[in-house]
Amino acid sequence: MRASLIQIGVNPDESIEARRLRAASLVREQRGADLVVLPELWPVGAFAYESFATEAESLDGPTYEAMSKAAADAGVWLHAGSIVERDPDGPLYNTSLVFSPDGELARTYRKIHRFGFDQGEAVMMGAGEELVTVRLPEATLGLATCYDLRFPELFRGLVDAGATVLVIPAGWPARRREHWTLLARARAVENQSYVLACGTAGTHAGVEQAGHSIVVDPWGEVLAVAGPAEETLTVDLDPAKVTETREQFPALKDRRLGLPAPGNRR
């Protein structure tokens, strides 16, 4: 299974429409891959809070149209990163779009954990409420976004739902880059799954991005890592390695859930 992570650079001097066209072209260049992944909120920028409301779009808006056609042209499964979704009956959402090789919208995922500590995304966007997996011929994807990476219980839920490849688009700041790579490896090790963590390059509203997209195997080995600039990582994954790792070191079978809280012990 060949996966390509496109670490798009976000340049404030580039228009959103120009970046859509460029991203679509980069996706088309990945013909021959099975799965292509884009970063979080790459059209507008993950920290461009002042633009969220004006640049929000519906699920069938311009990013959908561009990415649907690109996926079909390349013949790939495409995790198109995320957009600022305008729900006509609710708040804004940070929503990921996944397309099948025929360009159909296969699944969406609304980011559950919103970053900002009562500011920015945390107050401007609604929280998703559903764990989402996508079944591909070779593997089952578990979807998460950026700040979700810090919440291991979400990934346990995805593994229980059958995920073997955890896909995490992000707009992660450079000042916390070490956390990005550490947590990506931790999620791979503890869940015995592949991790495909795709970040952005450049700056979002003056916030330097970490870049360093990373692919980690189920044993925690780093298969590929990008630098800080725009780059595409292409890695061949062996789906059988997930099953082999879980059988050779069956730690997931030893989980003990539902233990009583300390105050309830007798």
From TrEMBL:
Residues 1-239 form the CN hydrolase domain. One of its GO terms (molecular function) is hydrolase activity. Keywords: Hydrolase. Pfam families: CN_hydrolase. SUPFAM superfamilies: Carbon-nitrogen hydrolase (SSF56317). Transmembrane segments: none annotated. It comes from the Bacteria. Belongs to the carbon-nitrogen hydrolase superfamily. NIT1/NIT2 family. PANTHER family: DEAMINATED GLUTATHIONE AMIDASE, NITRILASE-RELATED. This is Carbon-nitrogen family hydrolase. It comes from Streptomyces sannanensis.
